[in-house]
Design goal:
Distance between the termini: 33 Å
Radius of gyration: 22 Å
Order of helices and strands: HEHEHEEHHEEEEEHHEHHEEHEEE
Strand content: 15-25%
Number of helices: 10
Shape: globular
């Protein structure tokens, strides 16, 4: 969704801006890019830089770019791509003729659902990649269970088939070359693995058996629920870290930015609980990367954010790849 609270992502944008300024990366991969709520697109856009925006939701990153390129000050508009002098690479309708500063003659304002240029058309950059950043875990599981759940007679059978489907998942790489990326970002992603695709399965379960039937078996199903949820979370994190390690360059410089939700408060309370399995996720990250805390993070290593019910305590990390590591 388009985030109504830009302040929630301000820290992530500031950290990434500093990393981009520090590293001057030639290649950048944004994993789980979504609507670019936490991505400083203006800092990424450069003539000689290759940017990959990766997400498995159709057109979500294109919408994110579209809503970020036009700035309005009263009746005046400016285009990020025109301003940066990269219009030809970044917009298929760039004319090369300027009606005014930072605005080519192709510009036509569009005010709803957000301010943008009606004639913006993606060109060579950035590269929009529709792919599962969990190495195929989410998509493969969802497809398998959607087909098999219709034949299940009981909720227990559905859980057993779901666990079996998770065991049969095959790894599928993102279409980005090995050892090719200078900077990889994966902010606001790890926490989502605790909900998807388990949430999708829960929806199918409710649709097939109904709330009343599921409530009857809740106590007996609890161990299977936890087994499936933990298995899916572990598989997703392992594959995601494997993908990050595969594509990032291994020259000992800090080149990965990632964040994790460690604690969450109960709604309307200042009491926090540890997010389940997040310590396991950090352990998996530690197999492939060293953690670095320095000038880039400053006081932003730990941050509070409020999205939805309750408050999250997120920890932000800059990672340095270990030589010869493996997430498998």
């Amino acid at each position: 969704m388009l985030c109504p609270c830009e302040k929630a992502f301000a820290a992530h944008k500031e950290i990434l801006s500093k990393m981009i300024a520090m590293l001057r990366p030639g290649t950048v991969a944004i994993l789980g890019a979504g609507y670019l709520n936490d991505i400083p697109l203006d800092d990424l856009v450069e003539e000689n830089r290759k940017v990959y925006l990766v997400d498995w939701i159709e057109n979500v990153t294109k919408i994110g770019v579209s809503r970020a390129i036009i700035q309005r000050d009263g009746d005046c508009h400016s285009c990020l791509f025109c301003k940066k002098g990269v219009g030809e690479k970044y917009c298929g309708n760039f004319t090369g003729i300027f009606a005014e500063d930072a605005l080519c003659t192709s510009f036509e304002p569009l005010e709803e659902p957000f301010v943008t240029c009606k004639n913006y058309e993606p060109a060579d950059e950035p590269a929009f990649i529709k792919a599962d950043i969990t190495g195929g875990v989410s998509r493969s599981f969802s497809a398998k269970i959607e087909k098999s759940i219709v034949s299940c007679k009981t909720p227990k059978e559905a859980f057993l088939k779901a666990i079996s489907a998770a065991d049969e998942i095959k790894y599928q790489a993102i279409p980005i070359e090995d050892d090719s990326i200078d900077l990889v970002t994966s902010s606001m992603v790890l926490s989502q693995f605790d909900f998807e695709p388990y949430t999708y399965f829960s929806g199918l379960l409710l649709e097939c058996f109904g709330l009343e039937e599921l409530a009857k078996h809740e106590t007996r199903l609890m161990p299977l629920m936890e087994k499936l949820r933990t298995k899916l979370f572990t598989l997703q994190v392992e594959s995601h870290i494997k993908e990050i390690y595969r594509i990032v360059k291994k020259d000992k410089r800090p080149r990965v930015y990632i964040s994790a939700e460690l604690f969450r408060s109960f709604p309307d309370k200042e009491q926090y609980f540890l997010v389940q399995d997040m310590p396991k996720a950090l352990e998996m990250i530690g197999k492939c990367f060293f953690f670095e805390f320095g000038d880039v993070l400053e006081d932003k290593a730990f941050r509070k954010s409020s999205l939805g019910d309750g408050i999250s305590i997120n920890q932000n990390y800059i990672l340095v790849p270990k030589e010869g590591a493996s997430a498998a």
